[in-house]
Design brief:
Layout: E1 10-12, E2 19-25, E3 33-38, E4 42-47, E5 52-58, E6 65-71, E7 73-81, E8 85-90, E9 100-103, E10 113-118, E11 121-127, E12 134-139, E13 144-148, E14 157-163, E15 172-177, E16 181-186, E17 191-197, E18 205-209, E19 214-218, E20 223-229, E21 235-242, E22 248-253, E23 259-264, E24 268-273, E25 278-284, E26 290-295, E27 305-310, E28 315-319
Antiparallel strand pairs: 1-28, 2-3, 3-4, 4-5, 6-7, 7-8, 8-9, 10-11, 11-12, 12-13, 14-15, 15-16, 16-17, 18-19, 19-20, 20-21, 22-23, 23-24, 24-25, 26-27, 27-28
């Protein structure tokens, strides 16, 4: 590295449990917020100005919160827990109980994926009761859209991402499975379009750049797999990157498509230039596995942050803005 790695600009403490999921909500004129989901069932809404929790929601009967996100606005929160429930929350009315829930029946660790299809509707993909099963429903109606089951025995579904392509009729879904396979699904046709074996181990996490049609996935080994989607909607493996230490919990691509962050089992957050997957920095602060990473969506690039949540019960926040936009 040409320059020493930075230190976090501040740390959020008080979650009292491992931090499995992070989600920023910094757009608009309101207070910048960071939502976190913890291993003891709490969802913290952190005020990034005061650096304190603005609200703590005790959800999912104390079971671990695996995933948090927002729908349409920051007041509509969605969370997924190990209690086999996906809960919908309306924060505008100050409620402490979910306004609705979807039962998944899944005992795995695969995080959901949500796609906003209109100002008032979304698609939710979640792991189903069968280990290889993915279910897609419309929200808020909870109308079933499809069930996706691969013909081959790929093992448990481990990770997924929904997106709407610029051309073509309906949404597509990328899913990573226990045998190391990646599968591209056409949600409308309920058909698998392409499959590649990206890893020898389960696909723990993936992220996909919908503009450049490039993706990357991680597992328990030392390789990040890189892949593209060609004009025939076929997955093509590319040169990946070898990590110093094995194990990646999560991957996150910055909104401008310039930086990629990885949450490492070796307690480090690694930052890469997305264009060439060039390692830029290894951020070292946490004393246990890093479980989650997220980039903020602030309109002012100078106020954009990278957040990392760890098994050590702390959230570190890093300023990685530069004038060039693609360096740390």
């Amino acid at each position: 590295m040409s320059r020493p790695a930075p230190s976090p600009i501040y740390t959020l403490r008080g979650a009292g449990a491992p931090l499995n999921s992070l989600h920023f909500s910094c757009h608009g004129e309101g207070t910048p917020l960071l939502f976190s989901g913890s291993g003891k069932g709490a969802i913290h809404m952190w005020n990034l100005n005061s650096r304190r929790p603005e609200k703590v929601i005790e959800g999912h009967s104390g079971s671990s919160v695996m995933w948090v996100s927002t729908l349409q606005s920051r007041d509509n929160l969605i969370s997924q827990g190990r209690d086999m429930q996906v809960c919908l929350w309306d924060l505008s009315e100050g409620r402490s109980e979910p306004v609705d829930a979807v039962w998944t029946g899944s005992v795995g660790f695969c995080q959901c994926s949500v796609l906003e299809t209109s100002p008032s509707a979304s698609l939710l993909a979640y792991p189903g009761q069968q280990t290889e099963e993915i279910r897609v429903v419309e929200l808020p109606s909870k109308t079933p859209v499809c069930t996706l089951l691969p013909e081959a025995k790929l093992g448990m579904v481990m990770s997924m991402q929904l997106w709407q392509p610029d051309s073509g009729p309906g949404p597509l879904l990328l899913a990573g499975y226990e045998d190391g396979s990646l599968l591209l699904w056409d949600v409308t046709q309920r058909a698998d379009l392409s499959r590649v074996r990206a890893h020898p181990e389960p696909v723990m996490c993936l992220t996909f750049d919908t503009e450049r049609l490039r993706g990357v996935s991680g597992s328990s080994e030392r390789e990040l797999a890189s892949w593209t989607l060609d004009e025939q909607s076929k997955l093509q493996l590319r040169d990946g990157v070898t990590l110093v230490n094995p194990g990646v919990s999560q991957l996150c691509l910055r909104g401008d498509g310039k930086l990629l962050a990885s949450a490492g089992w070796d307690h480090r957050v690694r930052v890469f230039g997305w264009k060439k997957l060039r390692p830029l920095a290894a951020l070292q602060y946490h004393t246990d596995m890093v479980l989650s990473v997220a980039f903020s969506d602030h309109q002012d690039p100078r106020r954009r942050l990278l957040a990392a949540g760890s098994k050590d019960q702390r959230i570190s926040l890093w300023s990685i803005y530069s004038e060039g936009g693609d360096a740390v």
